[in-house]
């Protein structure tokens, strides 16, 4: 079976880590920073990083309209942490000048779990990802405060002060988590996305 070609938006953030995890999960993974490179992929990952910086660089590298068009055409996209913010239709506590790709009908709160020093790890059960709860790493992470009717909530924090906060969602071919699976060595979320791309 041919490996799906999955790009990682390589403007800022955890690019190498996502490329490595996708490759280990069976994808032909490559960094993407130009429209011509986007044309060659079957799916895209928007990595964790700094959402306002990614927003600015998407304009500088002329990637915003091509990504918007591919999302509208049904290309699978997975956003982690800052990538979740970039896929949201509404962002609370964001900068007024930051713009995302607005693919998933949800409201996210930027840096909801606190600053860098408040980073933490917690178990998250993810619908569609078999096995034990995912050991999730949260770094200046958002959470989801509201979802639209078309959005599936597929993961919530299961314990601690953040219990029941929504941290993983899916809307059609779009997937988002507020945590960083690329930092854990657990490939299940990446494998889930690879299969989503393959099915599309």
UniProtKB/TrEMBL annotation:
L-glutamine binds at residues 49-51, 110, 139-140. Pathway: Cofactor biosynthesis; pyridoxal 5'-phosphate biosynthesis. It comes from the Bacteria. Keywords: Glutamine amidotransferase, Hydrolase, Lyase, Pyridoxal phosphate, Transferase. The keyword Hydrolase applies. GO terms for cellular component: cytosol; glutaminase complex. The active site is at 81 (nucleophile), 180 (charge relay system), 182 (charge relay system). InterPro entries: Class_I_gatase-like, PdxT/SNO, PdxT/SNO_CS. The keyword Lyase applies. Gene3D superfamilies: 3.40.50.880. Its EC number is 4.3.3.6, 3.5.1.2. GO terms for biological process: L-glutamine catabolic process; pyridoxal phosphate biosynthetic process; pyridoxine metabolic process. It catalyses: L-glutamine + H2O = L-glutamate + NH4(+); aldehydo-D-ribose 5-phosphate + D-glyceraldehyde 3-phosphate + L-glutamine = pyridoxal 5'-phosphate + L-glutamate + phosphate + 3 H2O + H(+). GO terms for molecular function: glutaminase activity; pyridoxal 5'-phosphate synthase (glutamine hydrolysing) activity; transferase activity. In the presence of PdxS, forms a dodecamer of heterodimers. Only shows activity in the heterodimer. HAMAP family: PdxT. Belongs to the glutaminase PdxT/SNO family. Catalyzes the hydrolysis of glutamine to glutamate and ammonia as part of the biosynthesis of pyridoxal 5'-phosphate. The resulting ammonia molecule is channeled to the active site of PdxS. This is Pyridoxal 5'-phosphate synthase subunit PdxT. It comes from Micromonospora lupini str. Lupac 08.
